[in-house]
Design a protein that fits this description.
The chain has 302 residues and is of the alpha/beta class. Helices cover 33% and strands 15% of the residues. It has 10 helices and 10 strands. Strands 1-2-3-4-5-6 form a 6-stranded parallel beta sheet. It has a two-stranded antiparallel sheet with strand order 7-10. Strands 8-9 form a two-stranded antiparallel sheet.
């Protein structure tokens, strides 16, 4: 069910922490799911909780588990005003769900019809356009001022829409927003590796069971959590920008969310390793990105 209240987020966080090893310093950053019935008063409670960093905007029907999302943006204007006042970040899945709009154009239409007017109406609202996929989105974020930022996934840096059909239909390359043109991928590479603090890491990793992906109506989502930072390293190396990976991965997002930068570190080494064909997932299995192939960077042990 959607996590729509501060109380639900606190309960969810408690379940997460119960599964975290005692010697780990992992801290989950919680969000609320915005619906048309979210009361503005919930935003103050979320801010006062100290654990909630943002509110997710899912246009209804645009992505997985978005059925409870927003259909009429005007109904959440009071909530957006409260977020603007209390400093919570709006985290937007940037697509319209209109079936008359070509799936490859849904991000651009969302920006033009929804996000740009929203930003003009609420200019002091912090916004992250999550998992952007197009040159149009890059241009919007660059032009929108310091309170608008974006995340970029590893798959959208490494692949274009041809990967969906290479030698046949590739269900494990299907995600939403869908992979786009090569010109869009190159624009994303430029944004991610260019050093601009408005762009930072966001994997959008989605562990859907193999059976749900390989079906007559397969679900959207790419599982990248097994090798996300390593895959980002590949993209940055290809752009001759490895010196900018740390800021993209660890500094830009923290600064935008006004969070402290991690004091711990990891080490990546240039070493090929084979990705397993599958990983266990409950009683089933999940097929990871680059399954059965090679990743060129590896997380050092210890």
């Amino acid at each position: 069910p959607p996590v729509t209240t501060t109380s639900m987020a606190q309960d969810y966080r408690a379940r997460i922490m119960a599964a975290v090893p005692a010697d780990s310093d992992f801290e989950p950053l919680m969000t609320l799911y915005l619906t048309e019935t979210t009361p503005p008063q919930e935003i103050a409670r979320a801010r006062d909780s100290g654990i909630i960093r943002g509110v997710k905007l899912y246009p209804a029907g645009a992505t997985t588990h978005s059925e409870a999302g927003v259909r009429d943006l005007k109904k959440v204007y009071p909530v957006l005003e409260a977020m603007q006042s209390h400093g919570l970040v709006l985290q937007a899945h940037g697509e319209v769900a209109d079936p008359d709009i070509d799936i490859f154009d849904r991000e651009q239409v969302f920006i033009d019809r929804v996000l740009s007017p929203l930003h003009e109406r609420h200019p002091a609202l912090k916004i992250v356009l999550e998992h952007i996929t197009t040159a149009h989105a890059v241009d919007f974020v660059l032009s929108a001022g310091p309170l608008v930022a974006a995340t970029i996934t590893p798959q959208h840096l490494l692949y274009n829409r041809n990967a969906l059909f290479a030698g046949g239909l590739r269900p494990h390359h299907y995600c939403l927003p869908v992979l786009k043109r090569e010109s869009d991928r190159r624009a994303l590479i430029g944004a991610a590796t260019g050093g601009n603090p408005k762009f930072f890491l966001g994997t959008d990793s989605a562990p859907h069971p193999k059976a749900a992906k390989e079906s007559a109506c397969g679900c959207a989502g790419i599982f990248s959590a097994h090798a996300a930072i390593e895959l980002y390293a590949e993209a940055f190396e290809a752009a001759d920008a490895l010196d900018r990976l740390e800021a993209f991965a660890s500094r830009h997002g923290a600064a935008f969310y006004c969070l402290p930068v991690n004091t711990e570190s990891i080490t990546l080494v240039r070493e090929d390793w084979p990705v397993p064909a599958e990983y266990p997932l409950g009683e089933g299995i999940v097929v990871p990105l680059r399954a059965g192939q090679t990743v060129r960077w590896k997380l050092a042990e210890g």
